[in-house]
User: Fold this.
Amino acid sequence: MNIFRLVGDLSHLLAIIILLLKIWKTRSCAGISGKSQILFAIVYTSRYLDLPNFVSMYNTLMKIVFIAASYATVYLIYMKFKATYDHNHDTFRVEFLVLPSFVLALLINHDFTVLEVLWTFSIYMESVAILPQLFMVSKTGEAESITSHYLFALGSYRALYILNWIYRYTTEDHYDLIAIVAGIVQTVLYCDFFYLYITKVLKGKKLQLPA
Amino acid sequence: QVEEPDHDEL
Assistant:
């Protein structure tokens, strides 16, 4: 474990908590893409099937929290507060993300076993899972500031993981190209948002995308 | 037997 990965995981945890609190407190999931949240639930389910393999208390605890929180979020969006779910703007065709991710996982992986292919699928899936949410923000042309804080924390987590991979390569000579390439793609997808967040939201303005 | 790559990261 290193500081980059720890802060990255905590940023990830913060993002998930911000989102859950936003939906629970405002009793509304307006502006939130349910499709992205379903993709995240798929990501954690397919990645943490190795939950029984004990790595550390921290590892097991975080996996359980991520799985539970992702399903709780999907439940809140599609069941409890489904009246506030914005169908009209959450229209990204997720099949164009799931299928290519799965096919790519079958073609490019470290080991052609069920667990390893599913882990690889979760890595590819996670790198594009935020697209429906970013697409929804671009369609509505704006995002509540709490939603942009969620996106900033979520985007920062994988950006910090890149620093973790650099650190691990230089100190432990350990690297995983699949995770690194997907993590770079994932972080690049946030760049446009990061720019808007830093230039606008941090100055107290609302996140308005140029229409 | 290719040893199963361990994924110790979340």
About this structure: Chain A has a mean pLDDT of 96. Chain A has one domain: 3-202.
